[in-house]
Amino acid sequence: MRHLRLLIALLILALPAASFAQVAVSIRVGPPALPVYEQPLCPGDGYLWTPGYWAYDEDISDYYWVPGLWVEAPEVGFLWTPGYWGWRDGGFFFNEGYWGPTVGFYGGINYGFGYFGDGFEGGRWDHDHFFYNRAVMHVDVTNIHNVYNTTIVHNTTENRVSFNGGPGGIEKRPTPEQEAAAHERHVPPVGAQTEHVRTARSDPQSRASVNHGRPAVAAVQGRGDAREAGAAGARPNESRETGAAAAHAKDLQPVTRSEPVNSGDAKADKKYQQQQDKLIAKQNKEQQQLQQKQEAEHQKKMNDTQHQQMEQKHAQQTQQLQQKHASERQSLQSHAPAPRPAAPPRPR
C-alpha cells in the first residue's frame, strides 16, 4: 500500500501544470462584459501588465472585478498568460492564468494592452531585459529606455465579451502552438497577484451586483516585488480603504507635514516649516476642489458609455494631481536646510 501511494504521488507530480489550471466551480451565468479603462503608467523596468478580469466569490454568489496590475515577472524571459472563463457541461469554469516562456491560450478574449485574443503584442524579452511596445503600453521613456514602437493591427470592434464558449461567448479554440504552450513549465500567480485578488474580493465596491459591471477602480499601478506579497498599508497617493491606487480625489489621503527639520539653524528651520505649511494648505485645497468637481459630475445623468468615460477621466485627473503634488513636495524637500557641521572639540 505504501508503494502504491508513492506511485500515485509521483504520477500527480508528473502531470503538466495545465491539468490543475481549471477552477472546479461551475457558474450558470457568465461574467459581465469587460470594462473600458486606461492603463496606468508602468512603475518600473521589468514590470509586465496583467489585465483585469472578473473572478467569482462562492460565498456571496457574485462576480467581483480584479483590477489590472503591473507585476514584476518572477523569472527573466517569463510572460503572463491571462486566465479566462470557459463554457463546459452547461456551466462556466475559470481557467487560471500562469507565468511561462510562451503566452498560451486565453480564450480569445480581447483584454487589450497587447492581449488582443492571440499571443501578446505589448513587448518582448531580449536577453535579460524586457522591451516595451509603446504603441500599446503606457511607459515613461524618461525612466525606461528599452522600448520600441510597432503599430498592432487588430479587430477594432468594441467586443467586450469576457468568456469563451456558451451563449454569446467568444467562439475560439486553441491552436496547436497554444496547446503545446500549455504543457511548458509554468509558474502560478505570484504573491503580489494573490494578495491583489484577496484585496479585490474583500472590497464590496468590486462586486458586480454593486458596480453593475462598471468598477470604479479598473486598474492599479502595482508596487513591490512580484515574488513578495507587497508592502502593507496605503501610500500617500493610494486609497484610504484598500491600498489601491486612488480613482477619485475623495479617496486621497490628506496631505500632512513630514518629520520636523532640525538642522541646528532655528531661523532656517522655521522658514522651511512655514513653506511646508503653505504647500500643504494649497495641496489640500486643490484636492478638495477636484473632489467637489468630480462629485458634481457624478450627479449628472448619463448612459453606460458616458459613465465609463467619466470614470476614466476622474482616474486620470486624480493621477495627474498626485504626480503634480509629489513633484512639488520633492522640489521643496530639495531646499530643506542642511544640517550644520558639528563644532570641533575644544582643546583641553
Q: How is the main sheet built?
A: 4 strands, mixed
The outline comes out as globular
- Output the structural class: alpha/beta
Report low-confidence residues grouped into runs of 5 or more.
1-21, 224-244
Instruction: Give the averaged pLDDT, no decimals.
Output: 80
Distance between the termini: 87 Å
Query: Helix proportion of residues, in percent?
Result: 25-40%
The quaternary structure here is single chain
What is the spatial order of strands in the main beta sheet?
1-8-7-13
Classify the beta-strand content into a percent band: 15-25%
Explain what this protein looks like in three dimensions:
With 348 residues, the chain is of the alpha/beta class. It folds into two domains: 17-220, no CATH class; 249-333, no CATH class. Helix content is 28%, strand content 16%. The chain has six helices and 14 strands. The chain has a four-stranded mixed β-sheet with strand order 1-8-7-13, with no helix packed on it. Strands 2-5-14 form a three-stranded mixed β-sheet, with helices on one face. Strand 3 (53-57) and strand 4 (62-66) form a beta hairpin. Helix 5 (266-298) packs antiparallel against helix 6 (304-333). The radius of gyration is 24 Å and the shape is globular.
